[in-house]
Amino acid sequence: MQLPQKRWLSPAELEAEYGFSKSSQSKMRMATSGSNIPFSKIGGKYIRYDRFAIDKWLEEHQVQGRVA
Asked: How many structural domains compose the chain?
């Protein structure tokens, strides 16, 4: 039996599941291009990522490759 996936992920969990290093996560949170990664800050200290928001963000920022 498979356990349900957690909705809220810590930076370490996001790195393990999606492959974004913690330093990349930090850069994506600070991005000013309007395409920064969605996150929540709890108590002004703890970063958490909503799995559903991350999946939606990835779909919205998909780049279509071109065949040469």
From this structure: 1
pLDDT in tens, 9-67: 999 999 999 999 999 999 999 987 777 999 999 999 999 999 999 999 999 988 887 76
Write phi, then psi, for 12 (nearest 5 degrees). -65, -40
Range of the domain at 30: 8-60
| CA atoms 32, 34, 54, 67: torsion sign | negative
- pTM for the predicted model, two decimal places: 0.82
- What are the E-state strand segments in 1-68? 8-9, 40-42, 46-50
- 17, 25 Cβ separation under 8 angstroms: no
Query: Looking at the domain assignment, is residue 42 inside a domain?
Result: yes
Q: Is residue 45 a part of any domain in this protein?
A: yes
